[in-house]
Specification:
Blueprint: E1 2-6, E2 28-30, E3 33-34, H1 35-43, E4 49-54, H2 56-69, E5 74-78, H3 85-94, E6 101-106, E7 110-111, H4 114-129, E8 133-138, E9 149-152, E10 158-162, H5 167-175, E11 179-189, H6 190-200, H7 202-213, E12 216-217, E13 221-223, H8 226-230, H9 237-242, E14 248-253, E15 257-258, H10 263-269, E16 283-286, E17 292-295, E18 300-303, E19 308-312, E20 317-321, H11 328-338, E21 347-350, E22 353-361, E23 364-371, E24 379-381, E25 385-393, E26 396-400, E27 403-407, E28 412-415, E29 421-424, E30 431-439, E31 448-451
Parallel strand pairs: 1-4, 1-6, 4-5, 5-13, 8-14, 16-18, 17-19
Antiparallel strand pairs: 2-3, 6-11, 7-15, 8-11, 9-10, 9-11, 12-13, 19-20, 21-22, 22-23, 23-30, 24-31, 25-28, 25-30, 26-27, 26-29
Helix pairs in contact: 1-2, 3-6, 3-7, 6-7
Length: about 450
């Protein structure tokens, strides 16, 4: 069985922890592990391999986090633009043997009862082996209005899928015993799903097949071309197949599941002290109770407050009443209008390493850059800024124009505006340097890549 892991989504309801270039599934929220890593660990106990569907930025995050887990039996499919779950799953299934049973899971769900989960998977795998399309229905614990519901019939049959209900309808679903939260997890043979997709959504099937056939195929990596991905109609697996097919079965799943879709749900999953505050070594509390406190950089002191969400990421501070955190998406819409804070943290992750913005003001920006051993930045130039590089540790191989030289600790180099340059780490330890950018514009999109090891496009 292959685990198809869907890594799409930016988790805007968990801003400012979750950003476009570091979405919630890759943030290490639980015992120094991310939801993505927990997904891989959980499913690798029953699956032979992982097939990860993501965009190019998330691909490198996934590579790094799988390396930490020492998981190397992986395949990747890169989407240049998201077209929802039906095309993503179709492309992955088309790359597999038609008789391969796949377990399709999001990368950002939390499941705490793994013993029960193993039993549920075994039942789903058996139903999938009988050529059914299996979905997992989460046993509801309260009248949730933020999820879709599955209405079950006899012998694991599905009577209907229901959209997100109002509060009264959700309560009626809870009172009944045959309604389940739609988890977004599935199990089926790759070929059975594709046959049903071709039957009920032939446009998606044909466009996905064309995209895969013209994709750039490497050993374990498939890159879909932008023009081919755009040509695929956008739709969810529920609308495209599951709500139309007669082969759908549902497996009731009481597995302590959470989609960690808001700060209120995150609060319920994090360890808390005797006063109901989430445990945080940077938090100083005076008579404060039942608060979610998140922050790793600065001390957070609270006095006589209750039922608040306080999230500090260094470049952004969120304060909300508990119960109102669904409105964070509205905050993100406002943030997008004026800043890049929706997009990236102070520390940005790149395939070659990381950079951290130490200071940014009109006219200049200062960064701390870490380049991993054996990695190098793209050959590039800038139109609006000059750069000064000062090496702190390690030895950097620096190319500026036609000249290549070694820069050692406490040595520096200067790159004029418009000059081609590249930095490589040919050593055995990380290269750490301070970069000072000076110019009228220091945005991350002022970069022209001439050559790039990671096939990234110019922003």
């Amino acid at each position: 069985m292959t685990n198809i892991i869907l890594c799409g989504g930016s988790g805007t309801r968990l801003w400012p922890i979750s950003r476009t270039l570091m979405p919630k599934q890759f943030v290490k929220l639980f015992d120094s592990k991310s939801l993505f890593q927990l997904t891989v660990e959980r499913n690798s106990k029953v699956c032979d391999s992982q097939f990860i569907v993501s965009n190019s930025e998330q691909y490198f995050l996934a590579l790094d986090q799988l390396e930490e887990l020492h998981k190397d039996n992986n395949r990747y499919l890169l989407e240049p633009v998201g077209r929802n779950t039906a095309p993503a799953i179709a492309l992955a299934c088309m790359a597999l043997d038609k008789d391969e049973i796949v377990l399709v899971t999001p990368s950002d769900h939390l499941i705490k009862d793994e013993e029960e989960y193993a039993k549920v998977l075994k039942k789903a795998q058996a139903l999938a082996g009988e050529n059914n399309l299996v979905t997992f229905g989460i046993t509801p614990s309260f009248a949730e209005t933020g999820f879709g519901y599955i209405e079950s019939g006899e012998e694991n049959s599905v009577r209907a899928f229901h959209e997100k209900p109002d509060k009264q309808t959700a309560q009626s679903y809870l009172d009944a015993s045959n309604y389940y939260w739609n988890s977004g997890m599935f199990c089926f043979k790759a070929g059975v799903f594709l046959d049903e997709l071709q039957k009920y959504s032939p446009e998606i099937y044909e466009a996905s097949l064309k995209a895969l056939n013209s994709a750039k195929d490497e050993t374990t990596l498939t890159r879909i071309k932008h023009e081919d991905m755009i040509a695929i109609p956008e739709d969810s697996i529920d609308y495209a197949v599951m709500e139309k097919s007669s082969k759908v079965k549902v497996v009731p799943s009481n597995i302590e599941w959470s989609d960690v879709g808001s700060f209120d749900s995150l609060y319920e999953e994090l360890p808390q002290d005797e006063n109901g505050n989430t445990i945080n070594e940077n938090h100083i509390s005076i008579d404060s109770k039942n608060n979610l406190i998140y922050g790793k950089q600065r001390k957070i002191a609270t006095v006589d407050i209750e039922d608040l969400i306080i999230v500090d990421t260094g470049d952004a501070l969120l304060i909300s009443k508990k119960g109102s955190s669904q409105k964070v998406k509205e905050i993100v819409k406002e943030v997008r209008k004026t800043t890049e804070l929706h997009n990236i943290h102070l520390t940005g992750h790149r395939p070659w390493g990381t950079y951290t913005i130490l200071e940014s003001t009109p006219g200049y920006k200062i960064k701390r850059i870490v380049v991993k051993p054996g990695k190098r930045l793209s050959l590039q130039k800038h139109f609006h800024r000059n750069e000064h590089w000062i090496v702190v540790s390690g030895t950097a191989t620096v190319t500026v124009g036609d000249e290549t030289k070694l820069i050692r600790p406490n040595e520096s180099t200067y790159i004029k505006m418009g000059e081609l340059h590249r930095l490589s780490n040919e050593g055995k330890i990380p290269v750490v340097l301070i970069e000072a950018q000076v110019g009228e514009y220091t945005g991350e999109d002022d970069i022209v890549r001439i050559d790039d090891d990671y096939q990234r496009e110019t922003p």
